[in-house]
Amino acid sequence: MTSARDTFTLPARVLHWLMAILIVAMLFIGVGMVASVSARHEWLLAIHKPLGIAILILAIVRLAVRLRHPPPPLPADLPPSQKLAALASHWLLYFLMLAMPLIGWAMLSAGGYPVMLGDSLRLPPIFPASAVAFAVLRHLHTWFAMLLFLTFLAHMAAALYHGLIRRDGVLSSMLRGRRKAASALIGSTVSPGPADPEDLDDLDEEERVD
Amino acid sequence: MHDAAPPDSPLRRFGSWTLIAAAVVVAAGAFGYVGGWLAPQRLTPDKLVDQFQHNAGTFAGYRRNHAKGVCVAGYFDSNGQAQAYSMAQVFAVGRTPVVGRFALPGSNPYAPDGSVPIRSMALRFTQPNGQQWRTGMNSMPVFPVATPQAFFAQLQAQQPDPATGKPDPAKVAAFFAAHPETAAFRAWAKTAKPSASFATESYSSLNAFVFVDAQGKRQPVRWRMVAEATDASVGAGMAGDANYLAADLTERLARGPLRWHLLVTLANPGDPTDDATKTWPDDRRTIDAGTLVIDAATPQQSGECRDINYDPLVLPEGIAASDDPLLPARSAAYADSYLRRTSEEAHLPGGAAPRPEKQP
Questions:
Q1: Any idea which fold B64-325 has?
Q2: What is the pLDDT of residue A191?
Q3: Which run of H or E residues covers position A159?
Q4: Residue A119 C-beta-side C-alpha neighbours within 13 Å
Q5: A3: CB partners within 8 A, 6+ apart
Q6: A19 Cα to chain B: minimum distance (Å)
Q7: What is the pLDDT of residues A160-189, one digit of tens each?
Q8: Who wins on pLDDT, B358 or B68?
Q9: Predicted-complex ipTM score
């Protein structure tokens, strides 16, 4: 049997889609709560903090999974500039999903706030109280959030580009698992490329699922 | 299994690009709407705080409201009476350290003490378990308005007219006419006199909160700090001194600590918890939960209170927010003010330029 080198492992795919939902929700919660004076401000803030810590923990697990199971290689015919963009944006996403919760935690610590994840659960401060540090970290939290949202948009557009325009199997490598034995056998004999009929079938199925 | 259109047909390619562009536009548009950039009608913390700056000017490094104040410190001695209603550690018998601040409402840190009849007390209680209770109280019985939108309208009505440098009386009158809920506050303000001391004032939470006991039972409450000292003659020591309150405080503390009693009023079922313009009837049960002792004062430029945001929704387990719509608005606006003044303290770009310190 061939190894499933053309797709991400199941843990990687589960973590990717779970975190995709959580991180995009988190970005909307964040910009929504600071732009509201209504009760929404409070309940969004109450979700924001524990969700941030959940994302931090998942990001650490995901980084470990990624280092243990390297992702499938990008298509050989992908232009070097696009390969570089893919690589850089993926590591930027990893950096931001780890940095954002840590900055949020440090910023509340610097502001002298108790870091409450609920009515009773309090995290210890990870930064000494300092108004100047609070201001810097608080702005950094916003700037990185904007950068994360822009990177998410680029990531989504690139995924659709791979799936709809290039049809090179990159999108399906995150959408579905290892193909059944028969199709895997065929897949291993067919060189990947835009005209790969295997990917057309994938796409049709994806469209139906969506 | 294959589509009718060949994969590389220009039509299909165009459709694919359109789909990609649409996905990006929809995601960015939703983000812009939720973040307020594409929803200009929404009242945001930013707009509220901007309006304070429009009304009184921008004073770099200072709170955007209650800008003039003095730091104090001391402790709260709980007698255990409130323990039956709230599981907060602060109400167990014993002592909790407090860092507080007395202040005047308004955005001008140089306002004369006699210019407003209201004084405020903000407190931060730090419990042994690290949880905190922060509260900002005022020396009036009711708030003028019940909602953030009405408060914003009031600030707008009070914005000085560039021609006269004073609020337009017609606009202020129109606001009050449109907001009959302000009647109770205006009746109080008519007879209120600026006190000669922070020490003789009593300070009310105004907003309702909810005490939660160990079984999870919820009891709506309001609280106030009632002064033990009663010896200030209103109007004394004011002539020619714009800063008599801080001087009075220092002088009193030199003689000994100052004390307040924390009185907690328990709402009856049906008492409004979402309307700070209405007091509850006088016969509601009130508990004396303990004594606040203030034994030190420091100028706010160097005191510990300077870098504390007295956000009324920083609450320990056992005290929760009520459904009062002013509470989340206060929390959101205080956070915005805190970021502005700490950014100015950090000299980050985009903040207000610091003004030379005036020492009137």
A1: Catalase HpII,  Chain A, domain 1 (2.40.180)
A2: 41
A3: helix A131-160
A4: 14
A5: none
A6: 17
A7: 999 999 999 999 999 987 554 334 334 443
A8: B68
A9: 0.92
Tens digits of residue pLDDT in B63-72: 999 999 999 9
| Interface probe, candidates B8, B20, B62, chain A, greatest A C-beta count within 10 A | B20
pLDDT at A208 over 80: no
Residue of A nearest to B308 (CA): A112
One DSSP character per residue, B101-128 reads EEEESSS-TT--GGG-S--EEEEEEE-T
CB-CB neighbors (< 8 A) of A120 in chain B? 131, 317
Tens digit of pLDDT for each residue in B87-113?
Answer: 999 999 999 999 999 999 999 999 999
Q: Reduce the DSSP state of residue B241 to 3 states and report it.
A: coil
Structure tokens at A14: 């589960």
Predicted confidence (pLDDT) per residue in B236-280, tens digit? 555 678 999 999 999 999 999 999 999 999 999 999 999 999 999
CATH of span A10-209:
1.20.950
Q: Do B348 and A131 touch (CB under 8 A)?
A: no
| B274 reaches A (C-beta below 8 A) | no
Angle, vertex CA A15, rays to CA A9 and CA A21, nearest 5? 140
CB A9 within 8 A of CB A69: yes
- The pLDDT, as a whole number, for residue A202 is 40
Q: Using only C-alpha atoms, what is the Rg of chain B? A: 25
| Interatomic CA distance for residues B134 and B311, integer angstroms | 6
Dist. CA B90–CA B82, nearest whole Å: 9
- Is there a contact between B70 and B297 (Cβ–Cβ < 8 Å)? yes
- The answer to whether A42 contacts B24, with C-beta atoms less than 8 Å apart, is no
CA distance B235 to chain A (A): 37
Structure tokens that stand for B337 in this block: 């003010």
Q: Find the CB nearest A200 among B7, B17, B325.
A: B7
Contacts B336 to A, Cβ<8 Å: 34
Checking if the pLDDT of A90 tops 60, the result is yes
- In angstroms, the first-to-last Cα distance of chain B is 84
d(CA B94, CA B79): 7
d(CA B212, nearest CA chain A) in Å: 11
Say if the Cβ atoms of A131 and B45 lie within 8 Å. no
Q: What is the mean pLDDT of chain A?
A: 86
| Active site (catalytic) residues of B | 66
Contact residues, B window 27-46, toward A, CB-based 8 Å cutoff:
27-28, 30-31, 34-36, 39, 42-46
Q: Amino acid identity of A186? A: I
Per-domain residue ranges for chain A?
10-209
Residue B309 is encoded by which pair of tokens? 């945001």
